[in-house]
Amino acid sequence: MTEILRVENISYKYEDKYLAVNNVSVNFSAGELVAVLGSNGAGKSTFFLCCNGVLRPQTGHIYLHGEEVSTKKQLTTRLRQSVGLVFQDPDSQIIAGSVESEVSFGPMNLGLPFDEVRQRVDESLQQMDIVRYRDFAPQYLSGGEKKRVSIADILAMRSEMILLDEPTASLDPKNADALEQILRDLSQMGITIVISTHDVDFAYRIAERVIVFAKGEIIADDKPDIVFASQATLERAGLKKPLLFEAWETVRNGTVEFYGQARPRTIEEFRDLLAGNIANASQRIKHVSAGNNTDPSLAKAHTATMPIN
Amino acid sequence: MINALLSFAFIWCLTYGRLPVPVILVIGSGLAAFLFISSRHRHTGFIVTDVLAQASRLKSVNPTLKVITAFALIIVGIASPSAWTGVFLALTAFLIATFGGNISPHEYVEVLSIPLAFLLIGGLALLIEATPDPTGIVNINLYYFYLTVSPLAQQKTALVISRAMGAFSCLSLLSVTTPMSDIIGVLRRMHCPELIIDLMYLIYRYIFILLTMHHEMMNAAKSRLGLRNYRTSLRTTASVYSNLLARSHNLASQNFDAMESRCYNSGISFLENRVKANAVQVSACIVLLTAASAISLITVMM
Lengths: 309, 302
Ligand SMILES: Nc1ncnc2c1ncn2[C@@H]1O[C@H](COP(=O)(O)OP(=O)(O)OP(=O)(O)O)[C@@H](O)[C@H]1O
Ligand SMILES: [Mg+2]
Hints:
The complex is a heterodimer of chains A (309) and B (302). Chain A is of the alpha/beta class and 309 residues long. Chain A has helices spanning 44-52, 72-82, 90-93, 99-109, 114-127, 143-155, 173-188, 200-206, 224-229, 231-237, 243-253, 267-289, 296-305, and strands spanning 3-14, 18-29, 33-38, 59-64, 67-69, 83-86, 161-165, 192-197, 209-214, 217-222. Chain B has a three-stranded antiparallel β-sheet with strand order 1-3-2. Magnesium ion binds next to helix 1 of chain A.
């Protein structure tokens, strides 16, 4: 996979006192869907600000497409064009007097022709389902609506990498699901999506890769299955296991015997796997008890309630 | 309320001796009642002119035409030697905003209320002089000296205040019919320096951000019984105001970061309304300008 952004040993200290990001190295490839997890104050937002070039790390290097971004000019132009950032707090991001102006701000700064900007604004308003708020003043919208405006802001910029700081924090389930689908689609289109979140269930469901922050450092960077299986990592980062993951482990370590290493990531997969395993198991029962002429459906019902061994 | 009382006092001092007393009473109390009634309908919070502009029916008129007309009217109003031009501009602006733009009268009056209060206080200060002798039309004896209103002061004040009122009205009309993003676009096309446009826009935004923040903090204080009695109110207000500074400074710097993160480096611009002006609109503006100029010319000739 082609590498988009690589940071090496970056550190950021606020006011030269508090070390918020400590010696972090990580790289992101095209089309990856990555979740960044960590407790409050772990340094996720600061890390995002560094990746977008708003904050300039005191030490370390940032590479975009393998080329180092070092001068102020490069930071302001190349990095910010390629890496879009949705802020954690929409109030600190929104600057315009109407939703339409707000969403057009980024594309206008890219110096795009007028019609192109209009088309992008229309499209991102539709994507975030806020077309009806087009002429509204953002400060009079609800928390979740503001969040959707702030996401539309960045979608309209069509960056090749998008960082989202707690995108689902104030969204209702329906809008959170819609956002999830949008993020998956963007990732399919080859756009790198990095999401910071406390919602381990969301992260487990959506991410192909999970990065865990604790006290400004990366303590884990791996596939979700591996990260969430490590109790030590989760404890260090102050996180919980995703519900589905835990449920599956409970079932697995319990009385029913399962085959294969697959783990369900969604409730549908959970259902299928469960059903698949029981079917497998009942096959076995049928096989064993074929001589006794037992009714297969009875055997199936049997397996669902009784321990098999 | 204050505006209503001030306007009554102002009308009284301005017209006393020129109009019969019953007429003054009718005009003065009519204006006061109008201001009182339209300001009684309170909002939760305050009016943001940009919100009115977004809802205005005149939003879709070509912004360049609106900006040019507004500034031309201001120039005519200020250059005019007649007090009637200002009155004409104020009335027309009110009618255009309410009937043309479909904004409710009380919202328009609320937008104007702060400049209006300043104007009325300033007007009274211009009208009333302190003199040793009762030489004016109205004389109030304060033992050592008199507060007097002279006919000359009446004439001067009428002109000054009507000019100011006309100019304010034109600006208000512009701001309740044209969103800020459109005005910025026009100014940029007129080659106004970027720095000035950016500053203007950010100051304008921050006025409302500050007001919103103040409103929210006061509500938060209220919800925790911060305004229970006089003592706590004083303390709460003091702490809200000192916090307001710190918080708004913080918000401003975060906002600036967010702007920079979206590739901003000087030159704020937004999507703007690019409708062409049609013949009806252009001719309406010309008629308006001609009428305003005609009024001032007629008085010069008389
Ligand atoms: N502007 C600032 N000035 C000083 N210290 C700051 C500033 N912003 C953040 N910090 C500190 O840096 C540390 C990391 O903050 P950061 O916002 O990156 O955490 P986070 O992982 O995003 O937390 P959360 O999940 O609560 O959003 C925190 O301990 C915070 O106190
Ligand atoms: Mg954060």
